[in-house]
Prior knowledge:
Bound molecules: adenosine-5'-triphosphate
Helix content: 25-40%
InterPro entries: GHMP_kinase_C_dom, GHMP_kinase_C_sf, GHMP_kinase_N_dom, IspE, Ribosomal_Su5_D2-typ_SF, Ribsml_uS5_D2-typ_fold_subgr
CATH topology of the largest domain: Ribosomal Protein S5, domain 2
Number of strands: 12
Mean pLDDT: 94
Pathway: Isoprenoid biosynthesis; isopentenyl diphosphate biosynthesis via DXP pathway; isopentenyl diphosphate from 1-deoxy-D-xylulose 5-phosphate: step 3/6
Catalytic activity: 4-CDP-2-C-methyl-D-erythritol + ATP = 4-CDP-2-C-methyl-D-erythritol 2-phosphate + ADP + H(+)
Protein name: 4-diphosphocytidyl-2-C-methyl-D-erythritol kinase
Order of helices and strands: EEEHEHHHEEEHHHEHHEEHEE
Amino acid sequence: MTSVSVRVPAKVNLQLSVGPIRDDGYHDLVNVFHAVSLFDEVTAAPAAGLEVSVEAAPHSRVAIGGVPTDGGNLAARAARLVAGRLGVEPGVALRIRKAIPVAGGMAGGSADAAAALVACARLWDDRDRPVLTRDDLLELGAELGSDVPFALLGGTAIGVGRGERLTPALSRGTFHWVFATADGGLSTPAVYAECDRLREAGERPAAWPRVSEDLMTALATGDAKTLGAALVNDLQPAALALRPSLRRTLATGRDLGAVGAVVSGSGPTCAFLVANEEHAADLAADLDGAGVAEQIVVAAGPVPGATVL
Ligand code: ATP
């Protein structure tokens, strides 16, 4: 086989509820992940050793400066994990084309890891070896990070634990989104630390996280306005504290008619839900004109997870 290309979506969290900090330093989470049509592409080709190259996808203005091109890249770690499981040398050149913002709260690194798991498993698929099943890949994904299994699965799913134990959520129709990316990322650990600090300072103990029934009802009915009102992100106050300019971005999107406005995951990308495709194009143009974001991207969800092209 010469090469395998895999397309993988970004995610937005429809619900991100953060429980008390656990003894192992992680938080118990309730996450409702939603895969949207903003894709990275990872191509795996045979090579003497493990090589990584990273570029911005055509027409995308993703700043790829912070993405490692050594063994620290999550896609490279995924390749080594697959090679180890199959008992082969990790001889592969991984070419990553990024359209998902880096450190943007849309799980771009996890997406690339999921794509590399699928691409390498296919590249090294050989009749002499047992093939890796979807469950094997989900298990390897969970070893790499709590957002990786969802990037394999896609759609809309509820994640509990650290976010990695997934159940598909019942959802009707397509939702239309506009994403406003920011110049410079936010570190996920720094946002969790700020969330803990704000809670301690406010002496408000974290509640045990539970799946939002309002959100599940909104998804099942497919009504964007109801979904917009039910979006939850417990990390949003921390992201706003670390990046106060996001307040204006969110307010501008709301003023311009978004039916939902929320920081995506740990930020700094802001996600705006709109009623339909036409509204998405209008809001994108208006947000662009308002100058509150680095780049405006229109997308729809749910879409499938990592897919071989
Ligand atoms: P999440 O939403 O899961 O918290 P994020 O979208 O905020 O993640 P990522 O884009 O996944 O953040 O990247 C976070 C950091 O991971 C980057 O700053 C970079 O140093 C590192 N990294 C490793 N591999 C990759 C990759 N393939 N793509 C992007 N970043 C990567």
